[in-house]
Design brief:
single chain, 149 residues, alpha+beta, 4 helices, extended
């Protein structure tokens, strides 16, 4: 009761990891600057992916939400394998470019970047904000990005 009264939750813990990158602060300033003040006549995209999404389908349709009744769904489902979602959020407009791919490798990531490149006018600069996931750092991806500074 005492823990509850004072909001003490010893079973919860928060962790963090401080970057050892000597340019970390400069990189954070650049990224925050892109979010807060995107360059004019340029596209700023925040790119990320979610892998191993289970593709499930319920065996029967559920009933919709109605006054006094919650929505329903069956407990069983059919599995249709897994998929990976690649997404790019336009920082200025909130629009999302998303693609589902069967696998989650640098090959699929590179294909996603090419799809973005094709859909944007050739004279418009693109700024990508990405984490340092291994898929983003392969030689082929780095070469592709380096060819489009």
């Amino acid at each position: 009761r005492i823990w509850h009264a004072f909001g003490i939750k010893p079973h919860l813990e928060k962790t963090f990891k401080l970057s050892t990158d000597p340019l970390f602060v400069d990189k954070v300033h650049d990224i925050v600057g892109l979010y807060l003040n995107p360059p004019e006549r340029a596209l700023v995209l925040c790119v990320d992916e979610k892998s191993q999404i289970q593709a499930l389908n319920r065996t029967q349709p559920g009933l919709p939400l109605s006054p006094g009744n919650s929505a329903t769904r069956t407990h069983d489902y059919k599995r249709h394998g897994t998929t990976s979602l690649f997404a790019a959020l336009d920082v200025a407009t909130g629009e999302v470019i998303g693609r589902l791919k069967r696998q989650h490798r640098s090959t699929e990531f590179l294909a996603f970047l090419r799809e973005i490149d094709v859909s944007v006018p050739a004279d418009m600069p693109i700024h990508l904000i990405m984490d340092n996931y291994a898929t983003h750092k392969t030689d082929k991806v780095r070469a592709w990005l380096a060819a489009r500074p």
